[in-house]
Amino acid sequence: MHVRLASVACCLAMAVGACQSPFSGPRVDSDAIVEAAGPDRAVIRGSATYFEKMLMPTDSVLSVRLVDRDVAADSQQAIIAEAAFSDIAGPPYAFVLPYDPARLKKGGRYGITANLTTPQGETFFATAEPVPFEPDEPGTIKFRMIRLPTP
Length: 151
What we know:
Elements: H1 2-18, H2 30-37, E1 42-49, E2 61-68, E3 79-85, E4 93-99, E5 110-117, E6 123-126, E7 131-133, E8 141-144, E9 146-147
Parallel strand pairs: 1-8
Antiparallel strand pairs: 1-4, 2-3, 2-5, 5-6, 5-7, 6-9
């Protein structure tokens, strides 16, 4: 009887865990970031995740950038804003990225790129291409990073 109850409890715990959204997760103190950004800044709230069943080492770093997709991706001029988040637990990774809206052109094409690196600097996950970002659309931008091949 005790084994049966333990089995039922285990199954229920697994079912509840499986029902959680892959984009729910730790909260970022967005009010503090917005306040620190200043009145002439806007922020992008987002959540990055990956689907592989693995945890990154502690002290891994999530780097997020707002980029101009009309400028060559490998040029420094493409970067409008960037931030690195090192106090992260596990996926999904919530972030708040401040940016200067005056740097955006009307009708411009913008995107979010992200990568997740180990404390030693090895990149494990990244966005395959910039995730489209529309400055006038409110809400949280959610996206998936993909596993990069290991050297």
